[in-house]
Specification:
The chain is mainly β and about 210 residues long. Strand 6 and strand 7 form a beta hairpin. The termini are close together.
């Protein structure tokens, strides 16, 4: 027979993280660089959240004696994510594996990036290299997959999160590398692999679900 069960959770979180960027641009070679992030989230349930992410760091591609670029970028994005735990109907019968996997999630977002690019173009017309400097902005669409690990406080509520995240960030233009190849028909994208920590706080939400009872 079904019965009702309740679960208390914090509705807000703040977090910080760091990771590596890997661009896919008009250069033949991509380089790993570093970026940081700050995140503020609101939770509708313990496992559905939305929030704002600030990301800032560096992207690089190419070789020194060939076409190459450096991009010191900043972005802001709004994101929504859903975790696997949203589909659980019993919190009191979790195994070790299902408890760990409840933080597995996917998400999508939209935002704006500002690129500050210094690039050098080497081709037949510019054998000694042509310096290109560009400051531009673009609409972006981040796609997320990741995993959260939870740590409870003395009330038994999830208070801290250790987060591992992978973002695939699609852009609407070919400006991440300063438009090194004007003849390119492909917009730039980049990956961001990060880890971070989040602290939950604020008002308490009540998650009430229908549950099965043996």
């Amino acid at each position: 027979m079904p019965c009702a069960a309740q679960y208390n959770f914090y509705k807000f979180s703040v977090g910080a993280g760091a990771g590596i960027t890997y661009p896919f641009s008009d250069t033949r070679n991509a380089n790993y660089s570093f970026a940081n992030q700050l995140i503020v989230d609101y939770y509708f349930t313990p496992y559905i959240q939305t929030g704002v992410e600030f990301q800032f760091g560096n992207m690089r591609g190419g070789l020194y004696d060939r076409s190459h670029f450096t991009n010191n970028f900043q972005l802001i994005s709004w994101n929504a994510k859903m975790q696997l735990g949203q589909f659980y109907d019993r919190y009191d019968r979790l195994t070790v594996l299902t408890s760990l996997m409840r933080g597995l999630y996917a998400g999508v977002g939209v935002g704006v990036i500002q690129n500050n690019v210094e690039a050098y173009l080497f081709d037949q017309d510019n054998p000694d290299g042509l310096k290109i400097e560009s400051v531009n902005s673009d609409l972006i669409f981040p796609f997320h997959v990741g995993l959260n690990f939870y740590f409870r406080d003395f009330h038994g509520r999830d208070r801290w999160e250790l987060n591992f995240n992978m973002q695939y960030v699609a852009m609407m233009a070919d400006k991440l590398d300063g438009d090194l190849n004007p003849r390119s028909n492909y917009n730039d994208v980049y990956n961001y692999f990060s880890s971070g920590i989040r602290y939950k706080f604020g008002s308490i939400g009540l998650d009430q679900r229908r549950q099965r009872v043996r």
